[in-house]
Predict the 3D structure of the following.
Amino acid sequence: MPYLVVILLTVLSCVLFDKSKIKNSLDELLKAYKEQFRVMSDKSMADDQKQKELMQLIPKQLKGLGKLIFGIVLFISPFLSLFVLEYLNPELNPNILVTWWGLLLPILTVFVYIILKKKYGRL
């Protein structure tokens, strides 16, 4: 029973990962940091102009960091729910994730999920 719950939580985590679009958030954040590097390394720009452009990049970077952190928390939230589920059923102890089967089953589940998603499209 506990390992079935781990498999279900892993599938839920995979679905949430797809829906949260963490990759898009990461791409936006990298784009903002590349722009920051470009501005900082531009020798033809005056310091006041550099400061103005860098200040305009801060909200983009903070927004990107916020999206990324939210996506990561959303991605791991199913496994955090084991702490709550433990009160309902003591077998669902979060320590099952550090056993061999607790480590192997999520990895295998993710591989199966990826294979099924590639073969059948959207799940």
Notes: The chain has one domain: 2-120. Residues 47-88 form the longest helix (42 residues). The mean pLDDT is 85.
